[in-house]
Write a structure and sequence with these properties.
single chain, globular, GMP Synthetase, Chain A, domain 3
């Protein structure tokens, strides 16, 4: 499957004409039906048309604080068969400087207006199927600009609609930022390709608002990272959300405490664990009947991707290794400053930093990120294993494992935890770790904190440390 951005616009246009009076977008007090949304996109695209030459593949850099105008700008770019580079709002236009040389955009769209850019000669090296550019989270390394083909976006929308049984009567609450793959593709794009309604929000999320909207609009699908669900339930009044038929979760392990609360809050909802990354869209999704059964099992990857496990050369992952994937949902590559792409190996595989291990049922289990791993005394410590073990213990709401410098061993693991209701026994947790974990994984210190820092999507930031860790 290939294609160009225009095909995505044509799909949306077809849907918008089939259900013109259906509500497409709800953002605060603003509500747009499909006909109105289409007309706004057409008007915006037409205002840009004369500002760029159409004889080359063009890029439009979009950096807007308002998610509704961001979404309209993306659809307008696709109407022009342009690639939309969607970046977080940067304030004054000059702060976009670090991206300008790499992207060489033809237009820059910000809240201050539209600026025409004379693109560099690198335009000739842009693939016709380049459709969307997003920045990686940069939680472990510097953010990279990921170029996704049209096929990746189309497959994502198709597979989600098929597996979640999406119809034009569904109402999505996808509260992640549109600068994230999950927030953009998992909500607005999938919804708008199938005549559904999507509720948009500007970060930071306000639980009282999102909960009010679930009840007011009869939301049927709620999406978010584990930390977003956790934040939401901290302010839950105990009355179940009975309209929700599906709850999706991506990005983090739930843990039994949060899973139990989610099951109580959404009693009629199925639960879907979605696994994926910016570079290759979603890898798989696992439908489970009860959120309490949430785990780090990925399930079997989608049939439209090829995958393999790259051995870790005896670094302590057992039968596991690094997950590598290729296919029509995988990125074209990271955008290069002088044109073209990089980041795929000679066989077209994207080699991720995710450690996976096969399961007896033929699927995969996620063990964590290799770029978060470190060695103590020559043995590998996987922080995710330590964190998941602690979060499985009663009373532990959150846990983050980090390395601390040691003059003999190199590094030793330390952990900071957030306890449910502030109650818990640190010494008991240390004892449990010594009994259950491999010796190199046992934390040298466990510190209790009130909460952990979060990104704009509500996802816990990795690599944070307490005052006792570097």
């Amino acid at each position: 499957m290939s294609g160009t951005p225009t095909q995505l616009w044509q799909t949306f246009e077809t849907v918008s004409r089939a259900v013109p009076s259906n509500v497409a977008i709800i953002y605060g007090e603003t509500s747009l039906n499909y006909s109105d949304l289409r007309e706004q996109c057409v008007t915006l695209a037409d205002s840009w048309r004369d500002r760029v030459k159409q004889n080359n593949k063009i890029r439009i850099l979009i950096s807007r604080a308002n998610p509704l105008t961001t979404l309209i700008s993306i659809l307008a770019a696709w109407r022009l068969d342009a690639s939309a580079a969607v970046l977080p709002p940067c304030g004054p236009q000059k702060s976009l400087g670090p991206y300008m040389g790499t992207l060489a955009p033809d237009l820059v769209v910000t809240d201050d207006g539209v600026t025409k850019i004379i693109a560099a000669d690198s335009r000739s090296t842009r693939a016709p199927e380049e459709c969307l550019i997003l920045a990686t989270s940069g939680s472990t390394v510097e953010p990279k600009l990921v170029a996704l083909p049209t096929s990746s976006i189309a497959l994502h929308a198709h597979v989600m609609a098929r597996d979640l049984d999406v119809s034009n009567s569904d109402r999505f609450q996808a509260a992640g930022p549109l600068t994230h793959a999950y927030g953009l593709l998992g909500g607005p794009i999938a919804a708008l390709q199938h005549g559904a309604t999507v509720l948009l929000y500007s970060p930071p999320l306000v639980p009282s608002v999102t909960q009010h909207d679930i009840r007011k609009y009869g939301v049927t699908i709620v999406q978010g990272a584990a930390s977003a669900h956790r934040l939401n339930l901290q302010f839950w009044n105990g009355k179940p959300f009975e309209s929700v038929r599906l709850l999706t979760q991506a990005g983090e392990y739930f843990g039994p405490t949060l899973a139990s609360r989610v099951a109580a809050a959404y009693p009629f909802a199925g639960h879907v664990q979605i696994f994926g990354m910016t570079e290759c869209g979603r890898i798989s999704q696992r439908m489970i009947t009860d959120p309490v059964l949430a785990s780090n099992e990925i399930g079997t990857p989608f049939s439209h991707i090829q995958w393999k496990i790259m051995p870790l050369d005896g670094d302590g992952a057992g039968d596991g290794g690094l997950f590598a994937v290729k296919g029509p949902s995988v990125m074209l590559g990271y955008v290069k400053a002088r044109g073209g792409y990089c980041g795929l190996d000679e066989d077209g595989y994207f080699r991720s930093a995710d450690i996976v291990v096969p399961t007896p049922r033929g699927g995969l289990r996620h063990l964590g990120r290799y770029d978060r791993c470190f060695k103590t005394g020559g043995k590998l410590v996987n922080p995710s294993v330590v964190e998941r073990f602690l979060m499985d213990q009663p009373g532990v709401a959150k846990a983050v494992c980090s390395p601390k410098a040691h003059e003999i061993l190199g590094y030793v693991p330390t952990v900071i935890v957030v306890l449910e209701n502030g109650a818990g026994n640190v010494e008991a947790l240390k004892t449990l770790c010594m009994r259950a974990l491999e010796p190199q994984m046992v934390p040298s210190e466990i510190a209790v904190v009130a909460d952990l820092p979060q990104g704009v999507s509500g996802k816990t930031l990795s690599g944070v440390s307490s005052s006792s860790t570097p």
